[in-house]
Amino acid sequence: MPEGPQMVFLKEQLEPFIGQVVLKATGSAKNIPYASMQNQVLTSIKTFGKELLFCFPDFTIRIHLMLFGKYAINEELNRVLRLGLAFEGGSINFYACDCRFISEPLNQVYDWSTDVLHPSFDPDKALAKLYRKPKKLICEALLDQDILAGVGNGIKNDVLFRMQIHPESLVGEIPEAALQKLVQACVKLSTEYLDWKREGTAGNHWQAYKQPTCPRDYIPFRKQKIGPSGRTSYFCDKCQQLYLPDTI
Ligand SMILES: [Zn+2]
Fold it and tell me: In angstroms, what is the span from residue 240 Cα to ligand 1's centroid?
């Protein structure tokens, strides 16, 4: 599943379409006003976490690539088209994604300060939200898009490894200073990840995510589905500290 940095990178690839008029909108996504999108000017493209937002004068189309979403710029894939936008200067096609129509002003829909890559990201607010869920596993809390929008499974695994925190730690048991650093690490790694995308080197930098061996201890990483979301964690029992209540 694409994480926040990948969506910002995609937005950057699509920027040439800003200011262009939609010649034709087609697709199988429901509740999309295909006919009324015609002749509309794409005024801007934004991202919120893992969501891509196509902004028109009176409405927005939200795209979420989910687990298996694909897109093609100026070409078509041999798949069922969810949403295709044809412009004079080219086309954008989306497949296997979730598309939604948003009529409200975006500032009413999104709290930009929860997006780790947004200039208004508020780390104190994220920390306060984390502490409101003290019994939650940290590996689950980091994926909560209401707390840290844009953080996905790769960033989650690598920040926990960098900060040496075991994924099964409970949020409320992690010392405040460590949790603060963890939030900062989410921003830092997301920013680095975006730079790697721009350089074309993304995928070569993970220290823990999908890696076989702990680079600190040279022992195999444990790979395990943890928590209600069932997302996979990669972690080292030796160098990542498990924070649990003393009574357990
Ligand atoms: Zn280790």
Answer: 7
User: Separation of 217 CA from ligand 1 center, angstroms?
Assistant: 4
Reported as a single tens digit per residue, the pLDDT across 18-31 is 999 999 999 999 99
Task: Name the packing angle between helices 123-131 and 176-199 (round to 10°).
Answer: 130
Task: Report the pLDDT value the prediction gives residue 211, as an integer from 0 to 100.
Answer: 97
Using the mean position of ligand 1's atoms as its centre, give its distance from the Cα of residue 161 in Å.
8
DSSP β-ladder status, 98-102 and 51-55 = unpaired
**What one-letter code names the amino acid at 47?**
T
Q: Taking Cα atoms as reference points, which of 74, 19, 83, 73 lies closest to residue 45?
A: 19
Measured in angstroms, how far is the CA atom of residue 160 from the centroid of ligand 1? 11
Tell whether the model's pLDDT for residue 142 goes beyond 60: yes
Q: What is the pTM of this model?
A: 0.94
The predicted pLDDT at position 248 comes to 53
Cα 128 to middle of ligand 1, angstroms: 29
Say how far apart CA 152 and CA 190 lie, in whole Å. Answer: 10
**Measured in angstroms, how far is the CA atom of residue 174 from the centroid of ligand 1?**
19
